[in-house]
Amino acid sequence: MNAFVIAFNRTMRVGWRHPLDSLNPMAFFIIVTSLISITVEGESLTTGNSLAVAVLWVVLLLSTMMASGSAYAQDYEDGSLEQMVAQNQSLYASVHGSVAARWFLSAVPIVALVPLGAWMLDLDTEVWWILFMTLIPGSIVFTLFGVLGATLTLGVGRNGVLLALLVLPLYVPVLLLGVGACQRSVNQEPFEFALIGIYAIAMAAITFLPFAIAALLRVSQEY
Amino acid sequence: MNWLARSFHKMGSPPFFYRGAKVWVFWLYVIGLLVLLVGTVWGLAFAPADRLQGDSFRIIYLHVPTAHLSQLIYIAIAVAGFVYLVWRMKMADVFIVSAVWLGAWLTAFALFSGIVWGIPTWGTGWVWDARTTSVLIQLFLFLGLIALRTAIPNSQRGALAVAVLAIVGVINIPIIKYSVDWFTTLHQPASIQIGNPISIDPSMLWPLLVNTIGLYALAAGVILYYMRINVLRRERNSEWARDTVDIS
């Protein structure tokens, strides 16, 4: 538990002192959503709330990927990652801590902006609660896969496009389930299956992905 | 030590593999091409036409084996990745590097032949249903593996990263497999399922099985061929490699 708290506090403090790392993805989210609102005709958005839901999900996905894609990059360069790996504590717990902090720093602010985006896209307020119910586990999975992609490409310099290529395919099941649940809720159809599925994937990702991330962090110091 | 364990250890040794695989490559190519020729001619010319789909169903003889084999290659890559992570066996990484391109091409061909088949039967080349989507994602996963492997200059670290990515990506395979049953979509359920009576006539089934076996053999030959090249390239500074190539 100790390693979790240390990593959590440290990542939060570093994030707090680099506020632009959180603010830039938020600005990205707003700008892309408004670009879509400007370009897509108003009627086609209101006739199908499902389109607005899909737009919100995809834009949130891209913003979270950008935000978590730089995880551990600075630690890798200034050598604190080496200390993290070398210390005699559970790296698994430490990864959990820093991923949790990263979720608070980069995903939660964007999820908090979703009502604004929903307002821009003329989404019915009834959809909001199902949107939040699915976006919260969804953003956790997005953050975890984003951090995984970031550790895969540690030290590969200029890794933006590569990161997208590695991570976006892994996002697809969650994206489909999340958008499916919201759209079915819009159309008054049963959506429990998709909701259960997305929470199941989130639980599995929380349990297993930190193992993979910790293994990659260790490898990055070995070679 | 019994025979199996001994040959397993020998396979892990690059010079033994390089010399031993040469015969295998030749015979797998010959057998694979012959069997594939027999199955394709049988399927395209002699098998009866489908009652509903007419002659257009014959693309099954290429579509199903490639789609099936591309999934199998992805699973094999994930297994090899696991072997590399646990035992750090060099040959597992050589297998991944050699098989990943073939897997990407087979996936692309499966998608292409599916589009060609979809136009006359479904009335549309592409539908965003669960199965076509997940095969497309499988192609993206293959491309991601290739991109990651070439982006990391350090060979060992690149191999480990690719192994982890392959294992994480393998969650996609059950989604492909069961997506047809989860959602009722346009793609027909698999005709051949373990435990269920086969819903395809034997006269149509036999060429399909023959073609599948032929493609397996040919794919094994291609993978072994590239594995030999990659082993030699990787061991280019060792004595046995210099002796084999005989640089004068």
Task: Please provide a written account of the structure.
The complex is a heterodimer of chains A (223) and B (248). Chain A has 223 residues and is an all-alpha fold. Chain A has one domain. Chain A is built from ten helices and no strands. In chain A, helix 4 (49-68) packs antiparallel against helix 9 (160-186) and helix 8 packs parallel to helix 10 (192-222). Chain B is mostly helical and 248 residues long. Chain B has one domain. Helices cover 77% and strands 0% of the residues of chain B. The longest helix of chain B has 33 residues, at 14-46. Chain B is globular.
Annotation, overall tally of beta strands of chain A: 0
Strand segment count of chain B: 0
Our estimate of the beta-strand percent of chain B is under 5%
Coarse structural class of chain A = mainly alpha
State the secondary-structure class of chain B. mainly alpha
- Specify the number of helices of chain A: 10
Summarize the topology.
The complex is a heterodimer of chains A (223) and B (248).
Chain A: H1 2-17, H2 20-39, H3 42-47, H4 49-68, H5 73-78, H6 80-86, H7 91-120, H8 128-152, H9 160-186, H10 192-222
Helix pairs in contact in A: 1-7, 2-4, 2-7, 4-7, 4-8, 4-9, 7-8, 7-10, 8-9, 8-10, 9-10
Chain B: H1 3-11, H2 14-46, H3 60-87, H4 90-121, H5 130-151, H6 155-169, H7 172-182, H8 202-234, H9 239-245
Helix pairs in contact in B: 2-8, 3-4, 3-6, 3-8, 4-5, 4-8, 5-6, 5-7
Q: What would a concise description of this structure say?
A:
The complex is a heterodimer of chains A (223) and B (248). Chain A is mainly alpha-helical and 223 residues long. Chain A contains 10 helices and no strands.
Structural features:
heterodimer, A: 223 residues, mainly alpha, 10 helices, B: 248 residues, 9 helices, 77% helix
